[in-house]
């Protein structure tokens, strides 16, 4: 029986556990299983073996797994979150198992190194500077053209990613990152930052995998963002409503990016903007996409990105990764409900009407009515979502825009 170690499954990483169990694999889950690394009840039920350990400590994971009866039978290791891609690679190397190498990971976890790799390869990328102090931020701004975007080098979920119109705004954005004591999945945010020139254009993500040098894109997704200066994702459409020329340009560009950062035998989630000069990378990650995109890809194409990730983790060809259910063959979308500036709500106006005009797959509340909405990080303030299917990408986009207009949280006032 195939046996795989999944390190800290959160968000879409839980789909790795679902799919490994569905394939009849021995599913070993390593997790801290506390605080914001607490496993879901469903993941605990599906896992064959749970190993509770500090998943930010490579040596602790290796020791704990080696002591466990399942340790000797492992066939591969895969990360269940963005922050554990590098950890999983290190564990795989120490246990002598297939998987990403630490060299591969270095260029996708750090946004500054990612940019440098593209520049060396001659791949289109915005000019940037890496900074680690306010003084360096000022110097970086003097060398770049405004507007710029300020972002932490190793964060996720668009946290602290901000558009700045001048040096003062950029330095304030850096100072906010420097002052933030945020701990995410047991890791501090840090104060290393990239300041890069702003790229205008619609935003897209390409999800796929590279196996023995061959790059395959399963789907390109249109990303619908909230108002700037932040870049909160409020909706996604898979496949993106694109003409053949733009789609071809994206596919060629993603291949260049994947090769520039040296990814091999891995899934990828590649985010870019389609500028007047062609696609421009925002970032690329060696993991499954978040925001339910892993489900949108499966709904629209039948391809299970989780299956692909698992197969490559054990050294197997991912070409057999088609989902067990038949491909829907149309389009899929998701719309998040943005509460705006309110701190709590009593109900979501239009919530009960959605099934009348959308083929709903899942309708879920993230922050219940009456509870305090998180006050920091806009990406964490989304209170609900609707995941749906449509006959084609244009229809899916129209549904998404209607959901954005009609779903309105009604403010409540907490005592």
UniProtKB/TrEMBL annotation:
It comes from the Bacteria. Coiled coil: none annotated. Pfam families: ATP-grasp_4 (PF13535), ATPgrasp_N (PF18130). PROSITE patterns: ATP_GRASP (PS50975). InterPro entries: ATP-dep_AA_Ligase, ATP-grasp, BL00235/CARNS1_N. Keywords: ATP-binding, Ligase, Lyase, Nucleotide-binding. Residues 115-314 form the ATP-grasp domain. GO terms for molecular function: lyase activity. This is Argininosuccinate lyase.
